[in-house]
Design brief:
- One of its GO terms (molecular function) is peptidyl-prolyl cis-trans isomerase activity.
- This is Quinone oxidoreductase-like protein.
- This protein is an alpha/beta fold.
- The chain has 2 domains: 172 residues, Medium-chain alcohol dehydrogenases, catalytic domain (Quinone Oxidoreductase, Chain A, domain 1, Alpha-Beta Complex), CATH 3.90.180.10; 116 residues, NAD(P)-binding Rossmann-like Domain (Rossmann fold), CATH 3.40.50.720.
- It has 9 helices and 15 strands.
- Strands 3, 4, 5, 6, 7, 14 and 15 form a 7-stranded mixed beta sheet that branches. The protein has a 6-stranded parallel beta sheet with strand order 10-9-8-11-12-13.
- It is globular and about 60 Å long.
- The N terminus is likely disordered.
């Protein structure tokens, strides 16, 4: 898998190991580990990636419960995020070549046309548009943890019109998306004040990521704060409460379903956001955050989803190694 490899010298099997489900339901009931799943065929504008690491997101299990049934085709290999090595490139692909180390969220339009063959496999296909070159200072595990979460954080702050000198309150600052909202708000968007909620044990983490005010939701209600915020970013389903603390003319953004008065959205993945953020990742201003207990081998994906579903993870959960 050296970068000097030509496409002719990389042998690609016809089948690979993957997690798959053919009915909707709970992850622990429906996921099956299969050793002979067809390796996806690529189109002219796609690359085939040898998966080194993949990360989990709540959308994975919500999809297993049938959230995207209107757009899905069963059976499904779960997983949106990938980091790995290009082993084949379609004829129209301009940016990437065999041997490139890449990462991305493979679902360009996750809600209307989610990929049937996701990233919890040895190989996955991705459109050139949704991936970027992996920052050299990041491991594959770190890179895999980023795409969906950091792109969601970025798009939400743009939709909320956060800009230099404005304030933001992050509801759920210690989760996969929340940890990136804090960092981006501070280091990329230039927020004058970043406040965030978490449980007692996670307050120091919020401060280390750049939060000026860390609020312990187990002991205080953020509605009781004496100030209001230009932007409230809800990652936990509290948009209704967020509306009480947003300034007049400010914006409440939510990634937990539609909420009256709030801007709700479903990420459209794009590699251009990752490219834009590359300098911040390479300089270490923005850091990946992986839960201390959040690394599971491919064979333990069911246990990894069980941990994700507790909603207690700090940062991201990553599947590595993948054979």
């Amino acid at each position: 898998m050296a970068s000097s490899a030509s496409s002719g010298s990389i042998s690609i099997p016809s089948v690979n190991k993957a997690w798959i489900y053919s009915v909707y339901g709970k992850s622990s009931d429906i996921l099956r580990f299969e050793e002979n799943v067809d390796v996806p065929q690529i189109t002219d504008n796609q690359v085939l990636i040898k998966v080194v690491a993949a990360s989990l997101n709540p959308i994975d299990y919500k999809r297993m419960h049938g959230l995207l049934k209107h757009a899905d085709t069963l059976p499904i290999v779960p997983g949106f995020d990938v980091a790995g090595v290009v082993v084949k490139a379609g004829s129209q692909v301009k940016k990437f070549k065999v041997g490139d180390e890449v990462y991305g969220d493979i679902n360009e339009s996750g809600s209307s046309k989610p990929a049937q063959f996701g990233t919890l496999a040895e190989y996955t296909a991705a459109s050139e548009k949704v991936i970027a070159l992996k920052p050299k200072n990041l491991s594959f595990v770190e890179a895999a943890s980023l795409p969906l979460a950091i792109e969601t954080a970025y798009e939400g702050l743009e939709r909320g019109e956060l800009s230099a000198g404005k304030s933001v309150l992050v509801l759920g600052g210690a989760g996969g998306v929340g940890t990136h909202i804090i960092q981006l708000a501070k280091h990329v968007f230039g927020a004058s004040k970043v406040a965030a909620t978490a449980s007692t044990a996670k307050l120091d983490l919020l401060r280390s990521l750049g939060a000026d005010l860390a609020i312990d939701y187990t002991k205080e209600n953020f509605e009781d704060l004496p100030e209001k915020f230009d932007v409230v970013y809800d990652t936990v389903g509290q948009a209704d409460r967020g509306l009480k603390v947003v300034k007049e003319g400010g914006k409440v953004v939510s990634i937990v379903g539609p909420a009256p008065g709030a801007i709700s959205f479903f990420l459209n993945s794009t590699g251009s956001t990752l490219e834009k953020l590359e300098p911040y990742l390479e300089s270490g201003k923005i850091k990946p955050l992986i839960d201390p207990k959040g690394q599971f081998p491919l064979s333990k994906a069911v246990e990894a989803y069980a941990y994700l579903e507790t909603s207690r993870a700090t940062g991201k959960i990553v599947i590595y190694p993948i054979p």
